[in-house]
Amino acid sequence: MRKRNRVFGHTLTIYLRLLGVQLRSQLQYRFSFLLDLLATALIVLVEFASIALVFGRFGSIQGWSLGEVAFLYGMVEMGFGLMDLLFSGFDPPHFGQAVRRGTFDQLLLRPVNITTQVLGSALELRRLGRIAFGAAIFAYGLQHTAIVWTAAKVLYLPLVLAGMVFFFGGLFMIGATITFWTVDSIEVMNILTYGGSYVISYPMHIYQNWLRGFFTYLVPAIFLNYYPALYFLGRPDPLGYPGFAPFLAPVVGAGMLLLGRAAWRWGIRHYQSTGS
């Protein structure tokens, strides 16, 4: 047990040092960093402003008000933005470049846990703009919804956010593993990650059956945000799923992260160097 604790402590120290290197390098050009931060934040603002314009014209989306959709949208922006910040090293396009250029092979030669190195190899601080504006939109949603907060809801909220981080982080790890052999499937993974986060930013019952079924049975993202939102907002379930469906977010998230970790470890064992 003591040996395991020492190994964990050493790994954590290495990870924090790698993050420190990333932090210092990105803050070296502070004006450029601020512009990146602002640009990322403005993208979120413009996207939500377009949603608000739609609500200004139609009033609601199948009974959901702007405040309720802001609750959904803000949750996704915070959860996915935090994941994108922490798992940037596994982002398939970024990681695929490292594999093709041979820089990933350099990581394998170091006597440090490879997963820790990849996690610490990139820290996209500009994602903080997305997280901050997501939090602002979420706060707007809270102000314009009549949520009855209980101790259970307060305690469950961070678990929902963690579920999103774990879920999409696991998908990033699967996508990074695929790039060991091909880059042709990266766009498919982008559909599941960035596309999936976009889909769950809206009430899932507005979509056609085939799309809702895909994000329920194949990629169960419906349980990450929509069903927890039904619980928080006190809304009835229009799809008729079991009563425990709103509480599956951390389970689904942890399951995808474990699946991603298993795929990653399998990929490492079967990886052959690019030779470059």
Q: Your description of this structure?
A:
With 276 residues, this protein is mostly helical. It has one domain (2-270). The chain is built from twelve helices and no strands. It has helices spanning 2-27, 30-58, 66-86, 92-101, 103-108, 114-119, 127-143, 151-178, 186-199, 209-218, 226-233, 249-270. Helix 2 (30-58) packs antiparallel against helix 3, helix 3 packs across helix 8 and helix 8 (151-178) packs parallel to helix 12. The longest helix has 29 residues, at 30-58. The chain starts with a helix and ends in a 6-residue tail after the last helix. The relative contact order is 0.14. The model has no long low-confidence stretch (mean pLDDT 87).
List the defining traits of the structure above.
276 residues; 71% helix; 12 helices
The secondary-structure class comes to: mainly alpha
Shape by Cα distribution: globular
- Domain tally: 1
Mean pLDDT: 87
> Approximately what portion of the residues adopt beta-strand conformation?
under 5%
Give the termini separation. 40 Å
Q: Which blocks of ≥5 consecutive residues have pLDDT under 50?
A: none
Query: What string, H for helix and E for strand, traces the elements in order?
Result: HHHHHHHHHHHH
